[in-house]
Amino acid sequence: MNREVRRQQLESFGRAPALLSIALRQFPKKMWLYKPVPERWSIHEIILHLADSEASAYIRCRRFIAEPESPALKFDPARWAGALGYFHQSTREALEIIRRLRRATYQLLVALPEPIWEHRVNHPTDGLLSLAGWIEIQERHIPHHIEQMKQSYDTWLKTHPPRKPASTSRQSNSSPPIMRMSLSTL
User: pTM for this one?
Assistant: First the structure.
């Protein structure tokens, strides 16, 4: 991988928390607990998953640098979600964790010398994985979950269509509707 491609990936990686914040503004908070099917996560659960995943990524990244060739820590998202009770945790705090840990990881990565990018760890699902390969995976993680949120929102909209705004009368706007009604009955 050349440096320009890596720079672009790192920039995308660093911007992901801002993209998440922008995406979340599109979804009404009243639907954040909605699950399209029981096996899928709600937006609330996805946010908590992203915070746990970011904490795991923070440690994994440092392990690539400090302990190359070591086994990577295993992270079972479904087990974490079930055991940690995502429903009762704060999305505001989770978003802050994502933002801060991603910024710290990004700042560390942009300062790395070139040879470090070839450090590898033994990943539980991907086998021997370089830091360069890992950043490719991490760069897509938040955008993937934003897409899941959009799909959940689209499904939610089918059963909760937005209300149409009240239509305005063609009568004069010089007096409120109540006043017009009382004047017309005189």
Answer: 0.83
Measured between alpha carbons, how far is 49 from 39 in angstroms, rounded to an integer? 14
Domains of the chain, start order: 3-161 (1.20.120.450)
How far, in Å, CA of 43 to CA of 20, rounded? 11
Q: What is the pLDDT along the chain (186 residues), one digit of tens a residue?
A: 688 999 999 999 999 999 999 999 999 999 999 999 988 999 999 999 999 999 999 999 999 999 999 888 888 888 888 888 888 899 999 999 999 999 999 999 999 999 999 999 988 888 899 999 999 999 999 999 999 999 999 999 998 887 777 766 555 454 444 334 333 433
Q: Which two tokens stand for residue 8?
A: 């672009």
